[in-house]
Specification:
By secondary structure, the chain is α+β, with helices and mostly antiparallel strands. About 30% of the residues lie in helices and about 45% in strands. Strands 2-1-6-5-4-3 form a 6-stranded mixed beta sheet. α1 packs antiparallel against α2. The two termini are about 15 Å apart.
């Protein structure tokens, strides 16, 4: 079942990805935002370019926990196809300060 995240900041993050809107995506991130993929810290800008915006990334949210700060979603891109993923967000001052993702 597809659902919208209940946390408005996370909802904006998902909407920006699904719209392919890099400006909206960047606007929802804190200036010093960080991220990890499968437990390894990555360069956020390079990862986002490669895995999301250059590869037509899309998220279909399956479920959420922790007030919308933890998601399970099918993430699809032109590199890897569809995979079930988990996402955990840290929100600070109305922006995403960190996100951690990996296979679920």
């Amino acid at each position: 079942m597809t659902q919208q995240p209940t946390n408005p900041v996370v909802q904006a993050f998902v909407a920006a990805i699904n719209a392919g809107d890099r400006a909206a995506f960047d606007a929802v991130l804190a200036e010093d935002a960080t991220m990890s993929d499968d437990g390894t810290d990555r360069d956020l800008a390079a990862w986002v370019d490669k895995e999301i915006f250059s590869a037509d990334g899309r998220m279909t949210v399956e479920s959420e926990e922790d007030g919308g700060l933890a998601l399970v979603a099918t993430f699809t891109n032109s590199t890897w196809g569809a995979m079930r993923t988990r996402w955990r967000f840290t929100v600070r001052d109305g922006r995403i300060a960190r996100f951690d993702t990996g296979q679920a």
